[in-house]
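Quick one, T. Sequence first:
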Amino acid sequence: MKLALVGATGLVGNVMLQVLEEQNFPVSEFFPAASVRSVGKEIYFMGKLHKVCSIEDALMARPAIAIFSAGASTSKEWARKFADQGTYVIDNSSAWRMDTNVPLVVPEVNPHTLNAQQKIIANPNCSTIQMLVALKPLHEKFGIKRLVISTYQSVTGTGVAAVKQMEDERVGLAPQMVYPHAIDLNCFPHGGDFLDNGYTSEEMKLVNETHKILEDDSIRITATVVRIPVKGGHSEAINIEFNKPFEIDDILSIYKKVPGLVIQDNGAENIYPMPRFAHGKDEVFVGRIRRDESAENALNIWVVADNLRKGAATNAVQIAQALLEKNLVSA
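Structure tokens:
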């Protein structure tokens, strides 16, 4: 198994290294690749030091799988070149997500979309991944009619520089501004770029990616994305309107059977999902499960996950594992 990791020196790239090791993913030859300024640096992975190579050198190695976490422009330039020589590309950027020919995959939700013909596979947006792990089994049972989503997103979703801005503000240093406003002791309803319809690009990702992954454009969806000063993960308040009636016991019974989902729902003991406890974990945590008494067949849930792990690195590695399980690649 030849594996390339493009963007190996970045924030998500470092987490991908951890997850690959933790999952004991079978790697016989490893090619960490990055931009020219990082070539020659050394990365410790699976008990060995590996020198960072150029993306061109990684391409020439003809890996079975290349995981990309280096931004949309890099993916647009290089992903097709890897795919054309038979490499499966698992891309963590937004470059290919809405391409109709590219599978957009959450392994617990739609692994059936992986196939031998399409070599580029898109990793969804972090907020979409955790949400759909919680929504897919409910949609299968009751049919989702409408979603109202409010996200409370970690600064790690923006990268190392955003984390540094927050930490500098916290200790009273003059920060290099990544966000348009102070982030510490603050929150602001702004993720991505503002679009002509008044929504942001992060909000529309939740709409468009949900439709594509669930293969159901009839679901009505509206979203508000909020950035908050935490590092552990993204949180989401989701209001779901179903086509069919349900009981709370039905929801709990379904959730107990969902792989990778953990119920934390005991208000009497102050037990509910929080990013500080989701940090460093691969699961999706669900709580505050309660009926919306203001609408028919409606439910409220609170969903939290580490955006760098299940929202990015873990999901990408799980896609690679699914390729192995389907015998699309061999170890």
